[in-house]
């Protein structure tokens, strides 16, 4: 397991996530929802929902289909 460089910065409701290769994603926090607006991996949508206490929920990862016909 290697170390990873990450940095997160905020500008109002926007969150900028930086990795070792530059900007990796931009998300927006609105109440309990965190909505991913742009991602280097081209994934958008709800990235997490804050629940009461120390709990949160994330949707399962989406996998690309590998249909080759």
Q: How would you describe this protein?
A:
- With 69 residues, the protein is mainly β.
- It has a six-stranded antiparallel sheet with strand order 1-2-3-4-5-6, with no helix packed on it.
- Strand 1 and strand 2 form a beta hairpin.
- The chain is globular.
Number of helices: 0
Helix proportion of residues, in percent? under 10%
Based on CA atoms alone, the radius of gyration comes out at 14 Å
Strands, total number: 6
User: What number is the mean pLDDT?
Assistant: 77
Q: Helix and strand succession?
A: EEEEEE
Given helix and strand content, the structural type is mainly beta
Largest sheet: 6 strands, antiparallel
Low-confidence stretches: none
Please state the overall shape, judged from the principal axes of the Cα atoms: globular
User: What strand order characterises the main sheet?
Assistant: 1-2-3-4-5-6
Distance between the termini: 36 Å
How are the SSEs ordered, and which strands pair?
Layout lengths: L6 E5 L2 E6 L2 E9 L2 E7 L5 E6 L5 E2 L12
Antiparallel strand pairs: 1-2, 2-3, 3-4, 4-5, 5-6
Short key terms for the protein model shown above:
single chain; 69 residues; globular
Short description:
With 69 residues, the chain is mainly beta. Helix content is 0%, strand content 51%. It is globular.
């Amino acid at each position: 397991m290697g170390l990873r460089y990450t940095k997160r910065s905020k500008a109002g409701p926007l969150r900028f996530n930086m990795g070792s290769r530059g900007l990796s994603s931009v998300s927006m926090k609105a109440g309990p929802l965190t909505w991913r607006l742009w991602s280097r991996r081209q994934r958008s949508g709800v990235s997490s929902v804050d629940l009461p206490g120390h709990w949160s929920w994330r949707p399962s990862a989406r996998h690309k289909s590998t249909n080759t016909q």
